[in-house]
Specification:
Helices cover 58% and strands 1% of the residues. The chain is mainly alpha-helical and 465 residues long. It has three domains: 38 residues; 196 residues; 127 residues. It is globular and about 85 Å long. InterPro entries: EcdB-like_regulator. It comes from Penicillium arizonense. This is Transcription factor domain-containing protein.
Length: 465
């Protein structure tokens, strides 16, 4: 309850009558002293104008607008295109374009839910194998969160009665996402997904690593359908669950469960960071644990193997130009975590003047680029990519055939552009640009195009970059 001025607090007494006792005078003096102290507190805490519901609502709105204006600074990250009003202006789009996209997705999602309904699911083993192979090659390599023995569990569950549970939900979601990204079978993902959602009440109420994995897969499902708002909704729930599990010590002492908990935490952090960077949406407090949760070892990361299927069943060939080995995935996961940490701590070269104006700081830019190059120098050979030389013709710069390496390459140039965005913005204002910045922009876009074809789970954010 807010403090009220002296006249409205009920702490002031009528003037003492003639002949009143000295004790009454002392009480009045003490109350007056209290009133003065409270008035001093009020002057520090509240604006001078009278407090009314309308004024307080306006104040809250103004505070939010101030935060939004800070977030929409022209020096904000260029990778956050939709959240950057200056970039929207350069592209000829309205500053509220991101909100328009959000409203469009929400409206379309409501109609889709109205039209949806339960279906009978008949699982063909050949389709299940195809979906699992596609999921392993095109989704799990980006977010390796499943246990090493998942293949056996997957086939056991899909050959059973599929009663609502976290186990059946997880396997059905893997099949649903696999059918989306597989592109080889004319099999709809919808029956698998709708059957999986029958277990959603259990997933929401259950506090387990498997429930977190299910929520992550629902988010990835919507990512593959280019529905970032729905993906973000489920990612926030997953974030809340994994934080509660870690803070409450519910991951148990089993080494495998502890490792799965770490993989789930970092997977959720990466996914939330990837989605929320583009939209003005709620963010969890998942970064508060990044210094306390050890990095995952990923020594027993799951990968689909043909021999895990029944004899005589041919595994569909996936035309992937990459050796997606467990070691490759592990190295990528750790490199991506390191990149996100670096971007989270400091990612743009600006400094505030004494007047509160933000200006480009070349010294900070050099230090940030030094940290970026140090990150690159620690990349293992299996994930290393060719940065290209600014003196080398752009057409001679090779784009990595490995989608994992190329996505790291995208992140590298995205980080570099973030560092130099303040300089680019000032160049735009001045109407001139250097060849070096042009080269970095060109290499960045080449990497984006290649990553867009291979990284389906992050395709939406790659597109808006």
């Amino acid at each position: 309850m807010p403090l009220l001025p002296n006249s409205r607090r009920g702490l002031h007494l009528p003037r003492a009558a003639s002949g009143a006792s000295q004790s009454s005078d002392r009480v009045e003096e003490e109350l007056n002293a209290v009133n003065k102290r409270l008035d001093q507190l009020i002057s520090l805490m509240l604006p001078a104008q009278p407090v009314s519901p309308d004024v307080r609502t306006a104040d809250l709105r103004n505070e939010y607008d101030d935060l939004a204006n800070q977030a929409n600074s022209p020096f904000d990250l260029p990778s956050k295109l939709l959240g950057n009003s200056s970039v929207m202006h350069v592209l000829g789009l309205d500053a509220g374009f991101a909100q328009t996209l959000i409203r469009g997705e929400r409206a379309a999602g409501s109609k889709c839910h109205e039209a949806g309904g339960a279906r009978m699911l008949i699982v063909h083993h050949r389709h299940a194998v195809s979906a699992l192979a596609a999921f392993s090659a095109r989704v799990h390599i980006w977010y390796p969160i499943l246990p090493s023995d998942f293949s056996q569990e997957y086939f056991r569950v899909l050959s059973g009665s599929l009663h609502p549970s976290s186990e059946s939900c997880l396997s059905l979601l893997v099949a649903a996402v696999g059918h989306i990204v597989g592109e080889y079978e004319a099999v709809s993902d919808t029956p698998y997904f709708e059957t999986a959602l029958a277990s959603l009440p259990i997933i929401i109420s259950e506090c387990s690593i498997q429930s977190v994995q299910c929520l992550v897969l629902i988010a990835l499902y919507y990512c593959c359908l280019l529905k970032p708002c729905l993906a973000h909704d489920y990612c926030l729930i997953a974030s809340s669950k994994i934080q509660n599990i870690i803070k409450s010590g519910l991951e148990s002492d089993d080494p495998n469960t502890v490792e799965l908990t770490r993989q789930a935490y970092w997977g959720v952090l990466l996914l939330e960071n990837e989605i929320s960077g583009q939209l003005d949406v709620a963010k969890s407090d998942i970064w508060c644990l990044d210094e306390h949760v050890p990095l995952p070892l990923c020594q027993h990361t799951w990968q689909f193997k043909p021999e895990s299927t029944s004899p005589g069943v041919a595994t569909p060939e996936l035309a992937l130009p990459v050796d997606t080995s467990v070691e490759n995935t592990r190295c990528y996961f750790l490199a991506e975590i390191a990149m996100r940490r670096m971007l989270h701590r400091c990612n743009t070269a600006v400094q505030a003047t004494s007047t509160g104006k933000y200006v480009y700081a070349s010294g900070i830019a050099l230090e940030l680029e030094h940290q970026l190059e140090e990150w690159y120098s620690y990349l293992p050979d299996i994930n290393r990519f060719d940065k290209g030389d600014v003196l080398q013709p752009l057409e001679l710069v090779e784009i990595p055939s490995c989608p994992l390496s190329n996505f790291l390459r995208v992140q590298y140039y995205c980080c570099k552009l973030s560092i130099y965005w303040p300089a680019v913005y000032q160049v735009m204002q001045d109407g001139a640009i250097t060849d070096l910045l042009l080269d970095h922009c060109q290499i960045f876009f080449d990497s984006i195009v290649a990553a867009f074809h291979n990284c389906q789970v992050n395709r939406w954010t790659l597109f808006v970059r």
